[in-house]
Design brief:
With about 230 residues, the chain is α/β, with parallel strands linked by helices. It folds into two domains: about 130 residues, Rossmann fold; about 70 residues, Winged helix-like DNA-binding domain superfamily/Winged helix DNA-binding domain (Arc Repressor Mutant, subunit A, Orthogonal Bundle). It has nine helices and five strands, in the order βαββαβαβαααααα. The chain has a five-stranded parallel beta sheet with strand order 2-1-3-4-5, with helices on both faces. This is LuxR C-terminal-related transcriptional regulator. Keywords: DNA-binding, Transcription, Transcription regulation. InterPro entries: Sig_transdc_resp-reg_C-effctor, Tscrpt_reg_LuxR_C.
Amino acid sequence: MTGIEVAVAADRALVAETLSAAVAACGLTVVRLPWEGTPEPSSRPWRGRRAPADQAILLCDLGPATIDPARRLLMAYPSRWILLTDTPRGPEWGALLELGVVGVLPSRITLDDLVTVIEELAAGRQPVEVPGRDELVAAWHDARALEAAASAHLRTLTRREREILELLASGLTVPQIAELNDSSPSTVRTQIRSVLRKLGVHSQLAAVALLVRAEGREPGGLNGRRP
């Protein structure tokens, strides 16, 4: 085990620090990689053009706030990456599989098992396989294409229509929106019909889903009722 180097990164500084210390305690040489937007690690982060090791660990759950920073990290530090995540198998995996992730493991993996995987990678073996890798990458690109199309539709809305859609996404009902905007429910319903027409959908649920898809966020509530 002596002499094996592994790069470590995580979306939370404390998590990265803890993981680095645990792996180092097993006799591996650990180099922390900087994560966008987190405080600098107590140890000096690697600033080279490539990862300082042929194997690397990324610990994070994949969501709107983490996927793009994770992709930039993998592009900045090419290596054989192991992703530790509790994110269910899906397009999000594909976002990183195409950029150097060679295996995906649950974040609750035991330290002994993780070290074994690192040792296998260092020996030139492939200890973790991801079935359907190409399909996951394709699903990621499909999801991004849908987001781009949704964003284009949203740009056709007026400022007021966008506000109405945002309020629907937050879980407010038509009467609540009318009261908030000092207008009548019939006026709000007219505005909602305009939103649906411009977005090419037939329900409030579908309109909010389009907003969520475009911005990669979770809605506060969906009532799904038609105006």
